[in-house]
Amino acid sequence: MDAAPRKSVVVSAVNIRKGGTLTVLRDCLSYLSTRKDLKVTAIVHRADLCRFEGIEYIELPWSIRSWAHRLWCEYITLGRISKKMDRPDLWLSLHDTTPRVQAGRQAVYCHTSFPFMKIKMQDFRFDAKIPLFALLTKYAYRAFVRRNSFLIVQQEWFRKGLSDLTGFPEERIIVAPPSFVNSSDPSPVISSEAEKSLFLYPSTPDCHKNFETLCEASALLEKKLGPGKFMTVLTVSGEENRYSRWLKSRWGGVSSIEFRGFLPKAELYRLYGEATALVFPSRSETWGLPISEFLPTGKPLILADLPYAHETACGASAAAFFSPDNAQELADLMEKTVTGNAVFSPVAKAVHKEPSAYDWDSLLNILLG
Question: Are 14 and 70 in contact (CB under 8 A)?
Fold first, then answer.
């Protein structure tokens, strides 16, 4: 008896080059490389970023030159490629936009949470690309969204928000929490009690990361307690871009703030072990990886009171939340942490409605039907 023909899957990811989206792409293709029952084609910027055995690659390096090139690629070039492929069974776009292609089914993995961020005027001053991207993504999510059989998100709040934004039915938006367990990652080694409290915020120097609220809270707390009682460590140097230079020019004189700069993973995990608490004031995240990395320490989390943080912190033994624009509220939480009077509460584990998927196998089973 002849074997059943292999189903064909196309993964388009022409704009993915770094960060969490690249991790998702690599995880996806790593899994698909094990599926001998599937014929898999990946359309990417550069194949060497995500090369796995058994995957066919199409490289489109020009697609990243500008948003105009990206849109031309999504709505014209990929359509032309799909016509030559004899209608693949599934076309999975891993980066937010719905391409105009011919396929049995389409699905889009939605990463970008910027459309749900409260934009500030100073965002245009520090990096106009971020607020403009937030506005553009609202329209990109809506464009041709009805062509999809499913959308994929990482958190429950994102499912609700995306459905409201696009009109796409919630019952066809899959919540697929990412797995950040990596055997190569070091384990935080919990150090003995330090002489002073250490607050850690590991993040990139982007204006939506909201370092200014933590910096101002640290300045307020130093003014009240005096220097030498605590230290706030930031993983920016103050030299990377306009935003980080502004941060350092305004709060560089606060002795309780250390602009340490980028940290290798081993050094970052060492600091996780030494830190008294993780502070995470970011105004917009799809997930918030440092929260997940810090959770195994069992130490307190001081987080922006936003939906992403509540979901990422699920299962935490000790967490407190503050308004991301209220430096005084954050300073009060930090003071209570320093003095041992803080009240932290556990965060219940998440319960997701269907459809949901917790690994690539179950996700592909839904997508392929």
Answer: yes
**Helix pair angle (360-368, 19-32), 10° resolution:** 70
DSSP class of 76: I
Where does 197-339 sit in CATH, by number? Answer: 3.40.50.2000
| C-alpha distances out from residue 281 to 133, 175, 302, Å | 21, 24, 8
Residue 44: phi and psi, rounded to 5, are -135, 170
pLDDT tens per residue, range 202-243: 999 999 999 999 999 999 999 999 999 999 999 999 999 999
CA distance 283 to 52: 35
Q: Coil, helix or strand for 310?
A: helix
> Taking the model in full, what pTM does it have?
0.88
How does pLDDT run across 330-351, given as a tens digit for each residue?
999 999 999 998 899 999 988 8
Sheet holding 301-304, edge to edge: 257-259, 230-234, 197-201, 277-280, 301-304, 319-322
What gap in Å lies between CA 38 and CA 360, rounded to an integer? 14
CA distance 205 to 264: 16
Per-residue pLDDT tens for 137-152? Answer: 888 899 999 999 999 9
Which one of 3.50.50.60, 3.10.180.10, 3.40.50.2000, 3.30.70.330 gives the CATH number of domain 7-177+354-368? 3.40.50.2000
CA distance 260 to 232: 10
Q: What are the sequence ranges of the domains in the chain?
A: 7-177+354-368, 197-339
Whether residue 15 contacts residue 70, with contact meaning beta carbons closer than 8 Å, is answered with yes
